[in-house]
Amino acid sequence: MSESSGPQEAVTGPDGVPISQEEIADIVAPDREIAVSEGEPLVQLDELTVQFGGLTALDHVTFDIKRGEILGLIGPNGAGKTTCFNAMTGVYKPSSGNVTMEGVSLLGKKRHAITRAGIARTFQNIRLFGEMTALENVVVGLDARHRTSVPGAIFRTPRHVREERESIDRGMALLEFVGIADQATSPSRSLPYGYQRRLEIARALATEPKLLCLDEPAAGFNPAEKQELMQLIRQIRDDGYTVLLIEHDMKLVMGVTDRIVVLEFGRKIAEGAPQQIQQDPAVIAAYLGVEEDEDDDGVA
Ligand SMILES: Nc1ncnc2c1ncn2[C@@H]1O[C@H](COP(=O)(O)OP(=O)(O)OP(=O)(O)O)[C@@H](O)[C@H]1O
């Protein structure tokens, strides 16, 4: 078990009775859609193209993200993976093509509207509010869903007080879900690196996304932490979320994803189950010449 992330003691309710994982999951995502329509496309990228001046970073890329799956997005450095995330989440404006979620186009929507539509993400470089506690960082994400007005907050109306209490309960449940509830009151910048990554995931989950996009969540992790992260990603999927994962670590990608899309020079070169991708000649060729590391890069 790594130093930065470990099993937590059983959570108990106000009456001291232990709370089950299922009960925690219900508090974490009360409105989540149970994967009744598992396998249906949730998000569809259709001929998505992003250009930076003369450079085509994403070139007519088409694929579906199916409800309830963990989809890996892989490719050598500079292949266009992050650009793809950024185009989906409103950071970059695609030059052409479309991104739809449940059939509704996300093009032209502002970032917060895309969050509200149900896409949340983490970043390659951790972006937390360093001075805020772990719990406060999560509550910020929850606040995006609140309905009380500014006067409501100033005059502390019953609704505001109720929402505040619910936020704290849900925030704690989310921290529990990602395995760092014991650090709730620590300033996020003082948390070990692995905990900060988990906190980012908890904060993204606070918005109750339909799709959670993880951009290299295992960067800087040791093998034990990677194992624990794989478990957490599976737990997130099993709890009814759909996950899009950009990750360089092939063992992790092959071990945790249901399907994989491979990009090279902005183009999709393969799509399929992990075993298929591992043996795909185009994928092997794309990774040839990429420096191989024991735990990083290289297919297989
Ligand atoms: N804001 C930008 N302005 C200009 N070029 C960009 C911008 N963002 C990305 N690019 C270029 O687009 C291409 C794809 O980059 P991108 O970051 O999407 O690749 P990636 O697959 O995520 O790579 P990595 O694995 O190294 O993170 C690269 O050539 C990159 O230099």
Q: Regarding quaternary structure, how should these chains be classified?
A: single chain
Helix and strand sequence: HEEEHEEHEHHHHEHEHEEHH
| Backbone shape | globular
CATH fold naming of the largest domain: Rossmann fold
- Level-1 CATH class name of the largest domain: Alpha Beta
Amount of helix: 25-40%
Bound molecules: adenosine-5'-triphosphate
Number of helices: 11
Radius of gyration: 20 Å
| CATH superfamily label of the largest domain | P-loop containing nucleotide triphosphate hydrolases
Mean pLDDT: 83
CA(first)-CA(last) distance: 24 Å
CATH architecture of the largest domain: 3-Layer(aba) Sandwich
Protein name: ABC transporter ATP-binding protein
GO cellular component, one term: plasma membrane
GO biological process, one term: L-alanine transport
Organism: Flexivirga aerilata
